[in-house]
Amino acid sequence: MQFDFGPSCVGLRGSFSKSRSCRSVHRIGKRLVIQGASEGRGTGVENNGESSSDYEEGDATISVIPQRNKSPIAAAEDVDVSNGTVAPATSSSAIPAAKKRQRRTRIPDKPYLRIMPWNLWTILKNYIGKELTEIPIPFNFCEPLSMLQRLVEDYEYSEILDKAAMASDSCEQLAYVAAFTVSSYATTSNRTAKPFNPLLGETYELDRTDDLGWKCISEQVSHHPHVVAQHCESKNWICHQEFSMTSSLKGKYLQVKPLGMTHLTFLSSGNRYTWKKVTTNVNNIIFGKLWVDHHGEMEIVNHKTGEKCVLQFIPSEPFSPSKQRKVTGAVMNAKRELVWVLNGTWDNKMEASKVAEKRSQVKGKQVLETEAPVVVWQRRWPPPEAEKYYNLSEFACQLNELEEGVAPTDSRLRPDQRLMEEGLPVPQYEPIWFKKEMDTSMYPIDDSVYHLYKGKYWECKEKQNWSVCPDIF
Asked: Region (Disordered): which ranges (predicted)?
C-alpha cells in the first residue's frame, strides 16, 4: 500500500528485509507489507527517521516484537451470535430476546438444473469490451435475491460499527470502519451467482431494529444506468450510499468497477467517513470453476479530523494459497503518523495492531513497536449444506423472507424471484394476440418460426373489453 497523501505527507519508503523475529517480509519498494505475526506478538516498523513522522529515506523493517496486549480495541470474540442473531454482546441496541422475531435460517434447496449445452462464455463472448449490465442471463446463473437485497449484505457485520461508535479515539474508530468495509466482500468468496436486476422504482426495506439495532431502505432510482440509492440508520450511526457499476469482458475474466461513494456518520462524535469500493474480477469465464477476486486501493477518510486509512486489496495468485485474498492497511492520523496496522484476508478475518507509544533505537534506526494484534472481524461461515441453497449465509437467507406491511414495490414481492427461491419453474408468457407457428406459405424459402397475428384485437377495442390483458403496469 503506497502512502502518498500529497506534499504534507512524506511516504514510507525503502526496502523491507527480514529480521530474526519476522514471519515473512517482502521487498516491494514503497509498499508497506504486513505479514501475519504469530499470536500474542506485535509488529514493528523500523526506519532511519529522527521522529515517528519522518519516514522519508530510511530502510524500513517489519519485526515481531513480543508485547502484552494493552490495546483498547475489542476482539471479535466479544460478539454475541447466539440464536442466529448478530449483535455485540455489550451493544446498547440489543433488546430482550423474547421480543426478537424468529427468522428462518435457510431457504429451500435449489432445484436440479439440466446441464445446458452452453456455459457463461457462450453468452458473453459477443460482448467483449462492451457494457454487460443489460445482458439477459439465464436463471441457472442467478440466485434468488435482488441487487437491492445483495447490497444490504454490506451490513451483515454491523456489530463492528456498534463497537466503532464506542471506540476510545477516532483512529481506533477508523480501524473498526476499515474492518467493516472489508467484511462486505466476504460472501463473494463462494458465491458467484448473479442477483436479479431491480426494476425501476423497485424498493427493499430491512428492519432489524429488534435484534441488530438498524433499519435500511433501498430504491432503484435509475435504470440507464443502473443506480441504487440506500440509507441505513441505527441509534449510533447513519450510513448511506449510491451504488452503480460498469462491467466489461476482458478476455478470460469479467471486470466490475463499482461507482459511487459510501458515507458513514457516527452520531455521538460527528465523525464522517467516506470510501469507494474496489474493483472485482470474475475469473474463469471461458472454462473452469468461476471464482471472484477483489483488488485495488481503498482510501477511507475521516472528514472531521483529516485522518485516513489506506487499504490495499492485493490481487490473488491462484496457484499460491498463501497469496490469496490478502488485505493490508494502515491508519494514519492528521499528521500522517502511523497509528494502526491492519492485516488479514477479505474472506476470513482482519487483525489490527496499535503502534505503541514506546520508541527504541536499533543500530541507530528508529523502531515503532506495535501491540499484539487483535481480531477486529471474523467471518461467520455458512454451514456445509449451504451449497444446496446458493451458498447463502444465514443472514442472506433472511433477506427475502416475506414480511407484512412492506411497500408494494418491495423486492420480496417479485414473483419471478419468489418462484426461483421455492424451486418452481417460472411460467412462460403466453402472447394474447399472436401465436407461434411456422409460416408454411414461405416454405422452403424461409422455414423460420414466427409470431403470427391470431385476430380479435380490434374487436376487443370496439367493445372496450380488455379482460384478457394482463396488468403489466
From this structure: 39-58
pLDDT, averaged in runs of 10, over the chain (473 residues): 36 34 35 40 40 36 43 46 40 50 93 58 66 68 94 98 96 98 96 92 97 97 93 98 90 89 97 98 86 97 98 90 90 95 97 84 76 96 92 97 96 94 83 83 61 92 94 80
Is 237 exposed, middle or buried (CB count within 10 Å of its CB: 0-12, 13-18, 19+)? buried
**Residue matched to cell numbers 491462484:** 318
* Domain boundaries 88-343+390-421, CATH class: mainly beta
Q: What are phi and psi of 189, to 5 degrees?
A: -70, -30
Domain edges within the chain: 88-343+390-421, 429-473
HSE, side-chain direction, 13 A CA sphere, residue 301:
11
Q: Which of 350, 353, 328, 327 shows the shortest CA–CA distance to 340?
A: 353
The whole-angstrom separation of Cα 338 and Cα 175 is 12
CA nearest neighbour of 157 among 340, 394, 364: 394
Closest by CA to 339, choosing from 179, 173, 181, is 173
Could you tell me which residues come within 8 angstroms of residue 443 by beta carbon, excluding any fewer than 6 positions away? Answer: none
Looking at residue 437, its pLDDT comes to: 82
Dihedral angle over CA of 277, 279, 284, 285, nearest 10: 90
pLDDT at 184: 97
For residue 330, give the nearest of 183, 182, 171 by alpha carbon.
Answer: 171
Residues 272 and 302 sit within 8 Å (Cβ to Cβ): yes
Q: Report how far Cα 189 is from the mean position of its chain's Cα atoms.
A: 10
Nearest alpha-carbon partner for 412 in 260, 205, 234: 205
By residue count, the chain amounts to 473
